[in-house]
Amino acid sequence: MRADPANLEEPDRIPGQPHPRECYELFGQDEALSRASRAIRGGRPPHGLLLAGEPGIGKATLAYRIARYLLRYGATGDGPADLFVPPDDRVSRQVEAGAHPGLLVLRRPWDDKGKLKSFLTVSEVRKLGEFFGLKSASGGWRVALIDSADDMNPNAANALLKNLEEPPARSLLILIGHAPGKLLPTIRSRVRRLDMKPLPENLVVEMLTRMAPDLGQDERSLLARLSEGSLGLALRLAGEEGAQLAEGAEQLLATGSPDWTAMLKLADRVGRRPDNLEAFGDFLQRAVSRRIRAQTEAGHNGERAVELWEQLNGLFSRSSEFNLEPRQTVLAAAALIATAHRQHVLL
What we know:
Layout (H helix, E strand, L loop, with lengths): L29 H12 L6 E5 L6 H15 L16 H7 L6 E4 L15 H4 L1 H7 L8 E6 L6 H12 L5 E7 L7 H4 L3 E4 L5 H11 L5 H11 L3 H8 L3 H13 L5 H11 L5 H22 L5 H19 L4 H17 L5
Parallel strand pairs: 1-4, 1-5, 2-3, 3-4
């Protein structure tokens, strides 16, 4: 039986939190907002914009803010300099409902069995041609948002390139890129890149106090530190057993001889929710990255630690792509880290 997409949870929505299209405040990204405002309100905005940076720092929130402004005011200075369109505006209500005819959002699709595909398909990207080819009844703007561009397979990337080569008037294509270096150079050369920075740790703590009030102060501080400026990751870790998962991953990296009984319990905890594995793998790779930076700053060669990071990245990517057993993935990661400790890769 074919799954009904309308009944499926949005993959980019953090449980219990508003979706980025429902967010009207942008925290800690004043510089990026100012640059976006100058680009959009100058009268001749770029046809393509790449919002680049770590996941969970506000890229999608800024993308929807830009979209609302263009759909409301066009590429003029008639609207506010901070690109704000209030929630009670007709455009905002339509965007929130996913019903504005001038906005197209492309994400990884669901398959017939209700499982999220591991990549953004060429058939999805080809929707851009029809969308940009439509004539707006009001002569207004059309905005397409790809979240995220990292998810495109090669065929999808080539299809996107065709739309960037001959962009129509009054159109903007916004790409969200967590790892923009993976995009085709020909794509990067045709869009204006806007880099966004991780959020300050104290701001993440403040936001967790507002958005996850049930957390204790110690938990908020821990998650803010471990998420390295990603409010999105902190909120995902805050859900249910998130703090325990983060602590378990920290302990896994800290010891050369893992307690395999404890690892089995951790693996069971990761396997309880579908999104636990992604959050756990994200944190683990971030933690290894911190070790690499510390080793490099101390004058040590971090090349073998980079190899460990690549092995972990491949392990969690394969697990996501092929829907492998989360418990086995966690235990395999523990084995890789134990080997790295024995070989003095992690100092």
